[in-house]
Every structure is written in C-alpha cells, then in structure tokens.
Amino acid sequence: MAGPSHRRNSVGVDIGGIVVGGGHPIVVQSMTNTDTADIEATFRQVAALARAGSELVRITVDRDEAAAAVPHIRDRLDRAGITVPLIGDFHYIGHKLLTDHPACAEALAKYRINPGNVGFKAKRDTQFATLIELAMRWNKPVRIGVNWGSLDEELLTRLMDENAQSANPVTAAAVQREAIIQSAIGSAERAEELGLGRDRIILSTKVSDVQHLIAVYQDLAARCDYALHLGLTEAGMGTKGVVASSAALGILLQQGIGDTVRISLTPEPGGDRTTEVRVAQELLQTMGFRQFIPVVAACPGCGRTTSSTFQTLAKEIQDHLSASMPEWKERYPGVEAMSVAVMGCIVNGPGESKHANIGISLPGTGETPAAPVFVDGKKVATLRGADVADQFKQMVADYIEKNYGKSETMAAQ
Ligand code: SF4
User: Fold this and answer.
1) Helix, strand counts (H, E) of the chain
2) Residues lining ligand 1, CB < 6 A?
3) Sorted alphabetically, which keywords does the UniProt record give (predicted)?
4) Residue 367: which residues within 8 A CB-CB, separation 6 or more?
5) 224: CA distance to ligand 1 center in Å?
C-alpha cells in the first residue's frame, strides 16, 4: 500500500502550547535573520513568518542587547495578537545571557543549545549544567542541536583515535556521524541526570550533505525516543536548497522519522524569508502529512498549447489562495484540503480536472475556444469569451463559500 512508514514513537515536547513529537502533527518552524537587538525589524519578520504559517520561530540571542530585546519582541507580538512561540538560539554564552536576562529566559518558549559551542574543557560541563538548570527553573524545553560545523572536537578526536586503533576501522565520515550522535544523546542523557524531563528535550543532528543527513538521522532515530528536529544545514540558495532539503527530509519523513522541520534556505539578497516556511509546508503537504493550503494542480504545458493563459490563471489562483489563507482558516474551515486543477488542453485537462474539487480544461491550439469546468468530478459549465479566467475565479470563490462557508451551517444550528 502507498504511504509512509509508521511514525517513529517519540516523547512529545510542549513548546509554548505547540507539541512536537508524541504522535502530534509534524511542526513547521523557521528562523529570523534580523539582528535580534533591532526590536522592530525582528518583530516584523517574526510576524511575517508566523503569518506565512511558521508554528515556531527561532531568533538569535547572541549578546546582551539581543537578550534585552527579547521580552520587548514578545510583548510586541502579544499586542499584535501573534501567539507564535519564540525559541532562543544560544552559542558560547547562553548560560550567561539567560542568567543575566531573566525576562529573556521567561519570554522564550524553548532554548536551543549547541553542545559543541557551550564552552571548552572544564567550563563546558559547568556551563551546560547551568543552561539545563535555567531551563528547569523557567520550566522550558531545550533543543540539543548538534551541527557538524561545530562538533565537540574532544569527542571527535577520541573517537577517531579509537577507530584508528580498531581491528575493523570504519570511514572517517562514519566516525564523524557517530561523534554527532554521541554528542546529541550523551548531552540529552546528561540533561536528564541533571533533572530535566525527557519531555523537555528535542534533538537535532544537522549536516549539510544529503546522504550523511539521512544516515545520521536513521541511526539517531533508532537509538533514542527523543523528539527529533529535522533540517539540512547550509542547504543553500534557490532551487539547490529546496531540492536538497526536500530530498533529505522527504526520505526521512517517509521512514517515519522527524517531528518538526526547518528548511534552512539562504535567501537571495533582499529575498523573502518566508520562502522557507512555504517550502516546509509544501513538502509536508505534497507528501500527505499535513494540509495547509488548497493545492493547485497545473500541467507543465507543451506544444499543444501555445497560450500562456493557463499558466497565468494557475499562478493567479495559487497567489490568491496563498494570500487569502490566513483569513480563510477562520472563515472557511477545511478549505486547506480543497484541490483546484488548471489544465492546458484536452489531452489531460478533463481527466485531471475531474479529480480536483474544481477544475478547468482550457482550450489548446486548434481546439474549440471553450473551457469545460468540472466540480467534484462532474462537468457543470463550459466557459467562453475573453474573460474565462475571471469567470473561473468567481466559480472557485462560489465553491469555497458554498462548501466551506460557516454561515449556513451556523444558521442551521
Ligand atoms: S494537458 Fe495538454 S497542454 Fe498540458 S501538458 Fe498535457 S498535453 Fe500539454
């Protein structure tokens, strides 16, 4: 039977009301790239990410000014009615920042800790312990996020030495993966020894190579039941980042691995940060895990239709649906499951349109200038004239109102 493997059992972790793991829907998260000390810019970007559908947003907390800004950003969001939980991303001095800025510690819903960057030698253990004690004091969960760009050097060196002396040495990459996993699980176990509940710990082991990412998460998933955050680090820019992230995360999700995802895209200069949210949503939706927005199926076009009408119409409808979803979530519950088809000619047009909730088959080259429209598998109209696109958009609007509008249901209650 088609479908993903059974979801791996993991312990659910509540992050400001959003539960990651424990069988809950896979959560979409994102990260800002503003200077957190700039309250206004960070507030605006968090708001945009939340509006795009990010269910958790991570912000950098790298210095006193950033830590001091966090409660003000939280306050701005609350006043704007934006409830998205904020996660603080800490490196090197997280123990100090959370100690010196209790309002920051309180305003954040989760602390991200990188065990490779907590401190060095003797200080590492005490600073890690301080971070865990602060998490317990403020009743916050943590993500222990190992990243192979900042892997614990002592651990890696020890494992490399052991491997060199082994009768059956493995590759350097395999040792590196083992070091990443041991760093993550070892740190989580240390946090539990210090008193942090298992339901307060999420793990991630990010690398930038697709095959290594798949291998490391498969191994990690088999060796623990902590909730897992998936992400390909440094995925890159544009289609490269989208494809690499989708390939890696898609395979893991299909295997039942992963409780929350973040797509680490490098935006084009001046680009839109919310793209990473849309990519995460589309990945989860196309694989059938979640539904966020109505799907518009459009054919790729070919020599049978030289007209770009169907491309323009498909884009207009997709843009309209995307822009309307924040409002429609309240007004038209269930609309995110709707499917729309916009097809270029008679070859696949009627067939594909019949499978959608509402679909149109535009005329290809040499066909009669008429566009049949199908609603729930039945042909209901044939559109003609220069304003076919507008007529179809109106039919989509009517379909949504009729099938997802609350007013009639509420009036009948
Ligand atoms: S539906 Fe028609 S126009 Fe579209 S790709 Fe298929 S044959 Fe080409």
Assistant:
1) 14, 17
2) 299-302, 304-305, 343-345, 347-349, 364
3) 4Fe-4S, Iron, Iron-sulfur, Isoprene biosynthesis, Metal-binding, Oxidoreductase
4) 345, 346
5) 48
